[in-house]
């Protein structure tokens, strides 16, 4: 209790908490985009449940990883060397997660460009299998993003209570933002393609990080923000043209 009181009275601790909360929220954007795109592929009655399950698992994984900080720190130690390149468990997990994101985003882009016809005979079984497959894929990416998130937290502060609060706050923000973001993506088909492009970029970044090439996150999010701003202008332009056509008609 004395430790917590001293921590609460420390201005440095509050600054560290604020910084870490912002970092965790930013890192959670990748996770949230993936969950939103994936759950929008499910039947409408299953989407909210899938999002909540996916974000809930993200919280459980992050808190579980925080309880094993000593193990998490060891994940950054080299365990394998190939052609002079050393790899840690973290590196291999990031590479696997990046490859999965590349495969998933490319597959979704292909389906968007050349959609396969629906098979009504499999509609009844598709709901259960689709939901289970979505949860499995969300869980896999939750693990990758959670490890990245917790290692970032460990690198920024040594105080476990600060890490726990930052993680909980960031996941709560993800939970609040999940529905509006998913609805926005679902209502604007062109945004889906942009978000899939983001996932490809994030996947490449994870692979680069796994091979030891550090890519500043600021560059990634600046590119995402610029692309999103251009898409917003395109949406406003389309709506203005549609309104003008209605008025002239």
Topology summary:
Elements (H helix, E strand, L loop, with lengths): L1 H7 L2 H29 L4 H23 L2 H6 L3 E5 L2 E4 H25 L9 H34 L3 H28 L1 H22 L6 H32 L1
Antiparallel strand pairs: 1-2
List keywords for this structure.
249 residues, mainly alpha, two-stranded antiparallel ribbon, 2 strands
Describe the model:
The chain has one domain (2-215). It is 83% helix and 4% strand. It has helices at 2-8, 11-39, 44-66, 69-74, 89-113, 123-156, 160-187, 189-210, 217-248, and strands at residues 78-82, 85-88. Strands 1-2 form a two-stranded antiparallel ribbon. Strand 1 and strand 2 (85-88) form a beta hairpin. Helix 2 (11-39) runs antiparallel to helix 3, helix 2 packs across helix 8 and helix 8 (189-210) runs antiparallel to helix 9 (217-248). It is globular and about 70 Å long. The relative contact order is 0.17. Mean pLDDT is 80; it is low at 119-129.
What is the β-strand count?
A: 2
- Structural class determined from secondary elements: mainly alpha
Strand order of the largest sheet: 1-2
Q: What's the helix-strand series?
A: HHHHEEHHHHH
Rounded average pLDDT: 80
* Helix percentage: over 70%
Strand residue content: under 5%
């Amino acid at each position: 209790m004395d430790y917590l009181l001293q921590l609460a009275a420390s201005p440095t601790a509050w600054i560290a908490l604020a910084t870490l909360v912002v970092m965790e929220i930013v890192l959670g954007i990748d996770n949230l985009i993936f969950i939103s795109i994936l759950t929008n592929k499910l039947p409408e009655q299953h989407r909210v449940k899938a999002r909540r399950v996916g974000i809930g698992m993200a919280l459980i994984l992050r808190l579980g990883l925080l309880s094993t900080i000593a193990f998490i720190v060891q994940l950054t130690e080299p365990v394998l060397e190939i052609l002079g390149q050393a790899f840690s468990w973290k590196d291999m997990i990031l590479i696997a997660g990046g490859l999965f994101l590349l495969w998933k985003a490319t597959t979704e882009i292909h389906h968007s460009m050349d959609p396969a016809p629906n098979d009504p005979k499999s509609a009844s079984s598709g709901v259960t299998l689709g939901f289970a497959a979505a949860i499995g894929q969300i869980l896999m990416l939750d693990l990758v993003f959670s490890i990245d998130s917790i290692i970032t937290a460990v690198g920024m502060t040594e105080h476990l209570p600060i890490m726990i609060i930052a993680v909980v706050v960031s996941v709560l923000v993800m939970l609040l933002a999940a529905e509006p973001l998913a609805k926005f993506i679902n209502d604007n088909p062109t945004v889906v393609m942009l978000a899939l492009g983001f996932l490809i970029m994030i996947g490449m970044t994870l692979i680069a990080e796994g091979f030891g090439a550090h890519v500043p996150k600021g560059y990634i999010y600046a590119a995402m923000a610029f692309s999103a701003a251009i898409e917003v202008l395109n949406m406003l332009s389309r709506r203005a043209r549609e309104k003008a056509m209605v008025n002239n008609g």
